Amino acid sequence: MSDYGSKRRHYRGVLTVYGRKPVLEALADPGLACERLHLASSNRRDPILTRILDLAAERGVETRGHSREALARISRNGRQDQGVALDIRCPHFAELGEGLAALAARPATRLLALDGVTNPQNAGMAIRSARAGDIDGILYADRGNPALGPLVIKGSAGTLYGAPLLRCGTVAEGAAACRDAGYTVYTLAAGAPLNLFTAPLAPKTLFVLGGESDGVSPAVQALATEALSVPMAEGVESLNVAVTAALVAYAAKLRGG
Amino acid sequence: MSDYGSKRRHYRGVLTVYGRKPVLEALADPGLACERLHLASSNRRDPILTRILDLAAERGVETRGHSREALARISRNGRQDQGVALDIRCPHFAELGEGLAALAARPATRLLALDGVTNPQNAGMAIRSARAGDIDGILYADRGNPALGPLVIKGSAGTLYGAPLLRCGTVAEGAAACRDAGYTVYTLAAGAPLNLFTAPLAPKTLFVLGGESDGVSPAVQALATEALSVPMAEGVESLNVAVTAALVAYAAKLRGG
Predict the structure, then answer these.
(1) Between B132, B134, B235, which is nearest A239 by CB?
(2) Beta carbons within 10 angstroms of residue B50's beta carbon
(3) According to the model, what pLDDT value does residue B256 have?
(4) Chain A CA closest to residue B163
């Protein structure tokens, strides 16, 4: 494997958290695999930074100094990183292709993708719900999904770190790769004729949930085989995307499966 | 019926919206029964206020002027009302006792209460989910539930106006009234032995969901017969309350209750 491929694989399994409070909280959580602490050389000592350095030393986390500009490239958010970033290894993050290969032998697999969901707290809540309901993988795109920052982590109530994130370039690329790997692509759409709770579903499914305003994008729509709907009482036109994610994730249990 | 009782009954069926943008949006929605527009006499004309007055005139909505202080008593939020409030008749709001009486003849009834849920957007989202999933009534307390203001309306995506809100003093009083009316009170609690999706449930049920940090209060806990849990995958300790509300609403609906 090329050095580039190996670096890319490494990067795909790492979540870089930034900001003093989030970094401190992560270092204080013994369940997280903290790999490397990045600090801006311009940082002034304060009680939180001292505590961060103490915890990193206690845990044996490697610490590196950077220029302010280099740190901003690592955190990808120079305006909010407060000169601190932390690489956390997330054991269930994977490049989509490798994730699909690892899942190939299973007889039934349920994946979830969010298409055009721009609110990071909703994305985080959807991840939390999907994890709770035993979704096997959550497609997460570099372009088209909210950056994996503090608001997604907060929305996920910290469950993001352990989530099976299958990382891809765009949602459409990811959905196409799933289809090529034998998955049936279902979109969720209000008013679609097939009922999520009663329609027969393929054993390998990708459920795509659209954004609150624009729904599923045409590029992803073109890859879908069927549209499913959640039946709703009169007077209600749609559901929050994180709520829909929960119903999709728990649909098997709600069906009595 | 006494004049007091009649006033109270009237008040229980009315939602008072405040702030210029929310009032404008409500007046522009032909589906809403706008009853009375309240304005502070100190208001200066601006384009939004002009539009509000035009819409009220077009729709034949009675308009009343008040002192700034009197308007603050009507809106119950003088800091954010911007001198404008609008009474909207919500056809499915009721005093709890009357609501229970109206539901008494049904063979199966499913009610929902939120106990200690302080985030108004979560409360609104839970109302939206409960309505979508055909919950027959949502207990809503004057003390213990977030004020029915703009954030609840926003969280509910406007579904609050048509929601079957059963209004009571406190959640514990409401739960006690339900129990006295023959309802079985179930709390939702992580790790409870009974599974929401498979446990046999009484035909008349009140599901109580606790707040995100403290769960169900001891006073309500004491009224409950059983605790139900949503099964969750390892590594996830809880679900967002609006997500739990959706699973409760749809679990009941899908059981054919």
Answers:
(1) B132
(2) 10
(3) 62
(4) A235
Residues of chain A neighbouring B128 (CB-CB closer than 8 A): 236, 239-240, 243
Nearest CA in chain B to A155: B240
Inter-chain CB proximity A129 and B231 less than 8 Å: no
Structure token pair of residue B93 = 């709001």
Domains in chain B, start-ordered, CATH in brackets? Answer: 3-89 (3.30.1330.30), 94-254 (3.40.1280.10)
Please identify which residue in the block is written with the tokens 């349920």: A110
Q: Measured between beta carbons, which residues in chain B are less than 8 angstroms from residue A32?
A: none
- pLDDT, one tens digit per residue, over B112-142 is 999 999 999 999 999 999 999 989 999 999 9
Identify which of B125, B230, B247 has the shortest CB distance to residue A240: B125
CB contact under 8 A, B239 and A197: no
Query: What is the overall mean pLDDT for chain A?
Result: 93
CB-CB contact of A139 with A112 (8 Å): yes
Residue B75, pLDDT > 60, answer yes
Alpha-helical segments (H) within chain B: 3-12, 20-27, 47-59, 68-75, 96-103, 120-132, 150-155, 171-180, 218-221, 241-254
- Please state, as a whole number, how many other Cβ atoms lie within 10 Å of the Cβ of residue A187: 25
Confidence of residue B257 (pLDDT cuts 50, 70, 90): very low
When pLDDT is averaged across residues A19-32 and rounded to a whole number, the result is 94
Half-sphere exposure of B216 (CA within 13 A, CB side): 27
Q: Please state the rounded mean pLDDT for residues A23-51.
A: 94
Burial B66-90 (b: 16+ CB within 10 A, else e): beeeebbebbebbeebbbbbbbbeb
Residue B22 to residue B24: CA distance in whole angstroms: 5
